[in-house]
Amino acid sequence: MFEPEIKHYEQVRREYEERIVKKMAPADYIDWHEVLFSTHSCAIEGNSFTVDDTRILKEQGLAMVPVGHSLLECAEMADHFRAFRYVTSHLHAAFDETLLCETNRLVTANTLAYRAPGAVPGAYTTEDMAAGDTVFGDHKALVARVPALMASTSEALRRGVHPMIVAARFHGFFEYLHPFRDGNGRTGRLLSNWILLQAGHPLIIIDVKDRAAYINALRQIRTEGTDEILISFFFQTATERMESELAQKRGNTHLGAFIF
Q1: What is the pTM of this model?
Q2: Nearest CA to 233 among 162, 164, 174?
Q3: Lower CB density within 10 Å: C or N end of the chain?
Q4: Are 79 and 111 in contact, with CB atoms under 8 Å apart?
Q5: Catalytic sites, residue numbers
Q6: pLDDT, tens digit, for every residue of 174-220?
Q7: Is 110 in contact with 217 (CB distance < 8 Å)?
Q8: How far apart are the C-alpha atoms of 107 and 119, rounded to whole Å?
C-alpha cells in the first residue's frame, strides 16, 4: 500500500535534497522553515499572522508587535518558535513522553493561562475535551494510551516503515487522543516533523489554505476508522510543496539579465 505515493515522493525528494537542501547551510534551512511552519501551524488554529508578520516577530521579538495583532497571538507565535527550536535540536532524543510533554509545555507556556486558567503547560488534561464538532472520549482512558502510541511509533521507525507513513499515522492518532488542554494540533505537527527530520527527510508544512482537507482527513480516523486518507494527504502535501519550491528555484535561476 502507498507504493505509488512513496515512489513519487522519493523521486521528488531526491531532486529537492540536491537542488535546495544541500545548497543551503543547515541552520539557514531550519530558520527558513521555522517561519513558514510556525505561520501555517498557528494559522490552522486561528492565528492571523502572515509569513511576513512571523518573520518580523522572529527577527525583532516582542519589541516590534506587527500591526493588527494581539499580544496573545504574538505570545503564541513566540512560544511556537521556542518549541520548534527545541524539537529541531533534539533529533537524537528518545521519542517518548518526555519529548512530547516538553514540546507541549513550550507550545503553550505563555498562552494556556488565558485559554484554560489553572491548567499546567505540558501536563495531560484532567478533564474531557471537545474541539470544533468533535467530542473526544474519556480523558483518562485516552491519556493512558499515550505511552503505547509513543512506543509503537518508535518501533515503526526502527522497523523501517516509511517516515511519511509513520509521521501521518502518529499525527492522526495523537489528535484522536487529544491528551492536552491546549496545543494538541501544534504539538502533533511539530512531532510529525521530528519524525521526518530524524529520518533525514524535509519538513512537511500544512498550508492554512488546505485546512479543510486536513481536518477532514483527521476526522476520517474517528468516523471511518481509517488513517489512509491522512497518509495520502501527507504525501500529497509534502510532494506538492517540494515541487513548488523546485519550480521557484528553476524560475529564479533562469531569469534573464536586467537591462537599463
Answers
A1: 0.94
A2: 164
A3: C
A4: yes
A5: 178
A6: 999 999 999 999 999 999 999 999 999 999 999 999 999 999 999 99
A7: no
A8: 14
